[in-house]
From TrEMBL:
GO MF annotation, one: metal ion binding
Domain of life: Bacteria
Keyword set, alphabetical order: Membrane, Metal-binding, Signal, Transmembrane, Transmembrane helix, Transport
UniProt record similarity statement: Belongs to the bacterial solute-binding protein 9 family.
Compartment(s) where it occurs, according to its Swiss-Prot or TrEMBL record: Cell envelope
PANTHER family for the chain: HIGH-AFFINITY ZINC UPTAKE SYSTEM PROTEIN ZNUA-RELATED, METAL-BINDING PROTEIN HI_0362-RELATED
PROSITE patterns (UniProt xref): PROKAR_LIPOPROTEIN
GO cellular component terms attached to this protein's record: cell envelope
UniProt name for this protein: Metal ABC transporter substrate-binding protein
InterPro entries: AdhesinB, Bact_metal-bind_prot9, Lipoprotein_PsaA-like, ZnuA-like
Length: 335
């Protein structure tokens, strides 16, 4: 993944970053509302109805979409918990057990969760294993990485792609539980209408950004979908310095020069960034780091401003709009 170093945000204390960052990030990781198969959470403690089909879903985005369509008609098991990166996620023993017992597996695809995809080989051969992302968007954005052209998997940062994902999930749930198909179709129509309104709201909200500020500089390439969908001038991502405890003076200089060339007024960091590396460079270049961090790989924890797909897109849009001098009015989420 093209990002800056992971770090413990609870230890961040930087003069350039507003204290609000600590409040936003926090250090208390609460248990999600859905069933996650973490080692510390036993299968016995999960709310399992043996009379319902078990649907195993890999990512938080897919988990939320599936939940909004199926509601209480399935046993929904979500593997990657909020705050974890699917590309780096290692399946637990609980995950493997859930996969083997699944009646349907929904995963994103495009190599977004490689270790989980590999583990599917050990599941029952007669169950459906559906790559929702690949079925929804057959021609994703292409990016170069290590000299190779790869598919950029973060398709949901364009709400129109999320709507296509909803359609795929609805179809698969209807095949699994035909008696609930009418209910799924109804929930899908409601969800789709809300997402269409969300898509339009993002466009109108971003239109309040002054023309001179419509430049997006991020720490992750996933936002390529967002800028292409909503008409921002994409200044790219900061060069990859992952897996390093500190920057050499040469790399720090190169990074500072890159930031200057973008002429972007603000850097938008994601939630896996080491701000202790980035902040001094941003200060040197007189470019601010926006204190609220973007949701990139998935949703936030329950109770956060990114706990559902709709809220996550709202939160990211708010950060971008306020960071670039626009006017934010909250999206009207359905309860």
């Amino acid at each position: 993944m093209n990002r800056l170093l992971n770090c413990n945000f609870c230890n961040i204390c930087l003069p350039i970053v507003l204290p609000i960052i600590l409040a936003i990030l926090g250090c208390n990781h609460r248990t999600p509302n859905n069933n996650y198969t973490q080692d510390q959470q036993s299968q016995q403690n999960q709310k399992i109805n043996q009379n319902l089909p078990q649907v195993v879903v890999t990512t938080t985005i897919l988990c939320d979409i599936t939940n909004q369509i199926a509601r209480e008609s399935i046993n929904l098991i979500c593997l990657v918990p909020p705050g974890k990166e699917p590309p780096r996620y290692q399946p637990t023993l609980g995950d493997i057990k859930a996969i083997k017992q699944a009646d349907l597996i929904l995963y994103h695809g495009y190599n977004f969760e490689p270790r989980l995809i590999k583990s599917f080989k050990n599941s029952r051969k007669n169950i459906a294993k559906i790559s929702v992302g690949q079925r929804a968007v057959k021609q994703p954005q292409k990016l170069q990485q290590n000299g190779k052209i790869i598919n950029e998997p973060h398709i949901w940062h364009d709400v129109r792609n999320a709507i296509k994902m909803v359609e795929v999930v609805n179809f698969q749930l209807g095949k699994l539980s035909a008696e609930n198909r009418q209910k799924y179709n109804s929930n899908t129509r409601q969800l789709t209408e809300e997402l269409k309104k969300l898509n339009q709201w993002i466009k109108s909200t971003l239109s309040t950004i002054p023309d001179k500020n419509r430049k997006l500089l991020t720490t992750h390439r996933a936002m390529i979908y967002y800028v292409k969908a909503y008409g921002l001038d994409y200044k790219g991502t900061l060069p990859d310095i992952s897996n390093e405890d500190k920057l050499t003076s040469k790399k720090a200089k190169s990074l500072a020069e890159y930031i200057k060339t973008t002429q972007a007024p603000t850097i938008f960091a994601d939630r896996a960034v080491n701000l202790m590396l980035l902040a001094p460079i941003a200060k040197k270049t007189k470019v601010k780091i926006f204190p609220r961090l973007l949701y990139i790989d998935g949703l936030g924890e329950p109770g956060s401003d990114g706990e559902t797909y709709q809220k996550m897109m709202d939160a990211n849009t708010r950060s971008i709009v306020e960071g670039l001098g626009g006017t934010y009015l909250r999206f009207a989420h359905k309860k």
